[in-house]
Amino acid sequence: MTRNGQRLLLLIDDEPAQRRLVAALAARAGWRAIFAGDQDTAIATLGTQDGMHLDAVLIDHWATDADATHLIAGLRQQRPTLPILVLTANGSAQQAVAAMRSGATDFLVKPLAPDRLLAALDAAVGGNSAGELRPLTEKLGADLPFEEIVGSATDFRAALAIAAKAARSRVPVLIEGEGGAGKEMVARAIHAASSRARRAIVSINCGAIPANQVESEMFGHEAGAFTGAFDRKIGKLQDADGGTVFIDEVGEMPPEAQVRLLRLLETGEIHPLGARHPREIDVRVVVASNRRLAEEVEAGRFREDLFYRLNTVQVAIPPLRDRIGDLPGLTRHLLARIGRQPGLRPLGITDDALDLLSGYEWPGNVRQLQNALFRAAVLCEGEMLTRSDFPQIAAMGHRRSSTAAETGGVTLFRPDGHMRSLEEIEADVIRLAIGHYRGRMTEVARRLGIGRSTLYRKLGELGIDSAA
């Protein structure tokens, strides 16, 4: 740390524009960046006065895999405890495995969202595992249909049931939930279950785009529309024509872009910057926010008319800590998917390790769980993950409250302390079984000890959607 209290970041990158961008992002959280354009300069920097006060290193993956891992190993040999983060443009799991086995602390993917960079830096300096490991989140297997999404908690299955019903219509959908809770997963399941499944789903993250570029990125522009617009650009909304557009962190959308999005919802038209005439497109709009948009409207940061257009169907994804009964099944599901990644293998997990994971609060939700499992799988030398493979989780020690009266994800008591009705508990057990056996209704009926016809009758009587 520098004498004025700033944290010091060594940025290893040969592109001046990228260096300036990352330095500016880091400066928002009190970091000062120093630079190295090649491996030799980076190694030499560690021996300088600045190098002795470094708090973290960020390597842009411009080098070959062999060179990058050699550099990481060299840095790690000189400074065993120095956090080392790797930034890459494509984010393959194989690169993540190689970098982490060489000694990298975390792994990020371009384009780099400001909050994710700062969270990864803070997590690395704090010695915990709350960083992003974005390749896992973005590249881990194919999109899941509703019936294959793991989770049996009542609120979670209710949210999926709403989303599954909404998928069959054309109306906008607003998905709310904390960061990492699975909003994009649900958005992609909506698209896969819709009549637009054969067309593209295009994602836009408003939090990862500079505010002055959001309109151009979403709606496109004509050549000469503004300074620096040398060529015509097709916006992502037009790229999604005939399909679905998923707008993440919609609360970060600047006011001008909000007006344009409202016009699209009202008229089915977009107006690219600098264009003489609007263009008609057919696109399904699904948006997500980690803040409550109703509160953003009250605070004057989001248009009320746009909110009501987007809020035709609202899906609230509960945080992982509120469905902790799902964690064992979710963990095994994620480990199976991780084991199919290049350079990794399938692993089991001990009951003791599951107990540790179940006792943690998971502020980063499912994304953080994925990251923790990925990190443990990369470094594990045995066939089973044990408690010792999660030292960061054990060290952080944020335990869940032990007052929740839950058995396998089924709540037995009401908030006032009285038992829930048998009908309510039976409905939860059926939902749990549907989630656990991933919608295989014959297996659900067999495991519950009832016939299929009885199961479907109970679904109707209890008002349970088969997607729930």
Give a nutshell description of this structure:
The protein is α/β, with parallel strands linked by helices and 468 residues long.
Verbal overview:
The chain is globular. The chain is α/β, with parallel strands linked by helices and 468 residues long. Strands 2-1-3-4-5 form a five-stranded parallel beta sheet, with helices on both faces. Strands 7-8-11-6-12 form a five-stranded parallel beta sheet. The longest helix has 15 residues, at 365-379. The protein has helices spanning 16-27, 39-45, 49-52, 65-78, 93-102, 114-126, 134-139, 154-167, 183-192, 214-219, 236-239, 255-267, 293-298, 304-310, 327-338, 351-358, 365-379, 391-396, 422-436, 441-448, 452-462; strands at residues 7-12, 31-36, 56-60, 84-88, 106-109, 173-176, 201-205, 244-248, 269-270, 279-280, 284-289, 313-316, 348-349, 384-385, 406-407, 410-411. It is built from 21 helices and 16 strands. It is 43% helix and 13% strand.
Give me the secondary-structure topology.
Elements lengths: L6 E6 L3 H12 L3 E6 L2 H7 L3 H4 L3 E5 L4 H14 L5 E5 L4 H10 L3 E4 L4 H13 L7 H6 L14 H14 L5 E4 L6 H10 L8 E5 L8 H6 L16 H4 L4 E5 L6 H13 L1 E2 L8 E2 L3 E6 L3 H6 L5 H7 L2 E4 L10 H12 L9 E2 L1 H8 L6 H15 L4 E2 L5 H6 L9 E2 L2 E2 L10 H15 L4 H8 L3 H11 L6
Parallel strand pairs: 1-2, 1-3, 3-4, 4-5, 6-11, 6-12, 7-8, 8-11, 13-14
Antiparallel strand pairs: 9-10, 15-16
